[in-house]
Each structure stands twice: as C-alpha cells, then as structure tokens.
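Quick one, tokens below. Sequence please?
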C-alpha cells in the first residue's frame, strides 16, 4: 500500500531552508497533498529547550558528544509522530534539517563520522533529500543576523559542508545550488524534484 513521502531539506546555515520549506508546503497544499512540517532541532520539547540554550548561549557548555546525543534524542522524540503521519495519516512530512545535519555538524567538530550516525540508526530515511548548496560559503555570512548562533562561523561552515558532501552519493540526494538565484528559481527547482513523489511511494520505509 502506498504511503506518504518523507522529504528532507538540508543545507548550511542561512541558505534559505526555512523560506524554501514553507514554499514547498504551499505547493503540497495546492496539490491537495496532506502535509506537515517538522523542524529540527524542535526547540519546543524539553530536550529542544536545552538545545536552544546551547545554540544561543555561548557561555553554556556541553561536551561535543553530549550535545550530539541531545540533537539525536530530539529526533527520536518525534519518531512515532513521523511514522504515524506517513502511514496512518497519509500525510507527507517535510523535515527542515534531519539526521544529515546531525552527523555533519558533529563530525565537523572532529567526532568520528560513524559514531555520529550510530544514535540515529533506526530512524526513517527520507525518500528524497534536497541539499541547498552554496559554491561560496562566505556569501551567506553577509545575511542579517549571521553569527548570532554558535555554529555561524565561516570556517566551521566549510567543515560542515565537507561532511555533508559525504552523503552526496546517497540515492535520495539532490543538490540544488542557491548562489545568485532568486527565491522563485530555487523554489521551482525544488518542486521539480519533489513532484514525482507527491502521490505517495510504494516502498516500505527505509531506515538509517
Ligand atoms: P536551525 O534552527 O536550522 O538554524 O539549526 C540550528 C543550528 O543547529 C544550526 O547551526 C545547525 C545546527 N544543527 C541542527 N541539527 C543539528 C544536529 O543534529 N547536531 C548538531 N551538532 N547541530 C545541529
Ligand atoms: Na541557523
Ligand atoms: Na533555518
């Protein structure tokens, strides 16, 4: 039986993920596809509140490993909701960041890549992942508010990008360059990738 698709939008900080995610939700709604957004980290849960403090308060220290496990735990908090949406509720789930961010940001600090993936093993794998990509990571640092949060440092973002690129050979992965493009052009490119999935996917859920 067909189920609804799991769609992830990934990218470095301030590449327009949140804008493009909301555009994508509108396209799904106009196409009469039931849909919901889940944004990671979900800062509203108890674990999410701790993550928010970690991201916004540079005096609040956690070891890299424990921060990593909190981000993963935050995804597991939503596990049942994601599965139920896709299956029982036939609702497409759009993820604004997911496991790929989880691995890339922590591996960029020097933690072992496979160690970083391990706590998310068992989470559902997206049917399709859009990676909003920059040719020049300095371009985004000019955006308003850049640098407000812990990871918004150009040198660190370059390391994160290097880790994200390790996923580029995944079969569900689609790079979309955003440099020099308008919001609408990127929006159209995303929709052309997503549209083939909107009427549901036949397969069982894949897991990490
Ligand atoms: P956002 O709310 O999308 O701007 O994400 C907040 C910041 O947290 C951003 O710099 C990316 C980072 N981030 C998101 N997910 C994870 C994760 O699972 N692990 C780590 N270490 N960082 C993450
Ligand atoms: Na951010
Ligand atoms: Na964002």
């Amino acid at each position: 039986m067909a189920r609804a698709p799991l769609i992830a939008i990934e990218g470095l900080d301030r590449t327009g993920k949140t804008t493009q995610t909301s555009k994508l939700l509108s396209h799904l709604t106009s196409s009469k596809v039931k849909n919901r957004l889940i944004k990671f980290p979900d800062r509203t849960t108890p674990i999410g509140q701790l993550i928010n403090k970690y991201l916004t308060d540079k005096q609040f220290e956690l070891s890299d490993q424990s921060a990593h496990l909190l981000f993963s735990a935050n995804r597991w908090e939503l596990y049942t909701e994601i599965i139920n949406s896709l299956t029982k509720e036939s609702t497409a789930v759009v993820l604004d960041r997911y496991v790929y961010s989880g691995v890339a940001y922590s591996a960029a600090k020097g933690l072992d890549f496979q160690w970083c993936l391990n706590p998310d093993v068992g989470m559902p794998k997206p049917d399709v992942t859009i990676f909003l990509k920059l040719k020049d990571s300095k371009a985004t640092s000019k955006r308003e508010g850049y640098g407000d949060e812990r990871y918004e440092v150009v040198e660190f973002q370059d390391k994160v990008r290097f880790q994200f690129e390790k996923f580029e050979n995944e079969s569900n992965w689609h790079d979309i360059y955003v440099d020099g493009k308008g919001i609408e052009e990127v929006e159209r490119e995303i929709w052309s990738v997503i549209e083939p999935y909107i009427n549901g996917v036949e397969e069982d859920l894949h897991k990490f």
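Residues 13, 40-41, 55, 67-68, 71, 97, 101-102, 105-106, 149, 151 surround 2'-deoxyguanosine-5'-monophosphate (ligand 1) (CB under 6 Å). The mean pLDDT is 95.
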